[in-house]
Structure formats: C-alpha cells, structure tokens
Amino acid sequence: MSTEKTNTTRRATARRRPSARRRPEGAARAERSRAAARPPRTGSAGKTSGGAAGERVAAVAGKLSSVDPGSLVARFRVPLIAAAAVLVAIAVLYGPACTYYQAWRTNGVLQERDAQASADTTQLEGDINGLMTEEGVKDEARRRGYVEEGETRIVVEGQDDEGDGSDQDQQAAESVPWYIALGDFVFQYQGA
Questions:
Q1: Residue-wise over 1-11: b if at least 16 C-beta within 10 A, else e?
Q2: CA gap 110, 116 in Å, rounded
C-alpha cells in the first residue's frame, strides 16, 4: 500500500508546467501603455530637418511619457525613505540644536567679557601700586597739569596723548568668522 501512495504523489507532481510565464495584470497593462506611447519608427527617408538631434529628443520624450509612476516609487523607495528620515531628524533636532548653539555662543561671549574684566583689573591694580609711591604721585600730578615749585608748564597742541582704542575693540569684537556668522543666522542668535 505504501508504494501506491508514492506513485500517486509522483503523478500529481509531474504535471506539465506551462512554457510561458504569466505576467501580473499591472505589468501587462504598463507594457501596453509603453507600446502605445512610443513614437512610430521611421526609416532614413522619414528623417526631418532636425536630424539625429530631433530623433534623440523624440526618443527621450517617448521614454518619459512611458514611465510608470508606480514603478518609479518602487525603484526609488529606499532613497525616498532615507531622505524623509533625514528631514524628520533635522526637524526634530533643530530646537535642541538651536538651544545648545545659543548657550555655547553666550558662554563664549561671557568668557571673553570675564577675560577683559580680569585684564582691566590687573591694569588698575598696577596703576594703584604705581600711585602708592612718591614718583607715581608726581607723574600723575604732571599728567593732570600740575607743576612743582620752580617748574614751568608747557602745553603742546595738535598732538594726541593716547589714541582711543575703544572703537577698535568694538570692531574686533563684532568681526566674527564666517562660519560663526552663518551659525548665528541659522540658529537665530541675537547676542548676549
């Protein structure tokens, strides 16, 4: 009895398969639309004055009209999904990145101000130490226009004592590299 079962199963699996594969209905429909959209082929006698360039344009136009949008989506599915994921990631991370950049820039500006205040403090301490001596007091009095007994005061006009460096300091502080300026624009940094 066991041999009969195997013989029947062999007969059932030994069916003839059709020689031509059947295409899905969508693929057959797409092929028919492509064939209908192709421009008719002409021989050398049918060439127009445009020549080979005209034929190329017609061939490209025929190919573009025969493109199935469904096949384009299927063909570029992975790149489209990747691009959408990147755009979503940029949109989600913009807020935290903006906050981080503004905090970083504010910290940098405050550190510069702290360094400038420390330099000013050091200079003022040096001036105070210089004024604690007798020579320092005499020099400061002369600078302010006072003279000792027996000395004559002379005023020279047309010569500046010291150049005002505050304008240069402001210009140096406002000139930032291009990439910092770009970051300030992108992340809307207003300044501290």
A1: eeeeeeeeeee
A2: 10
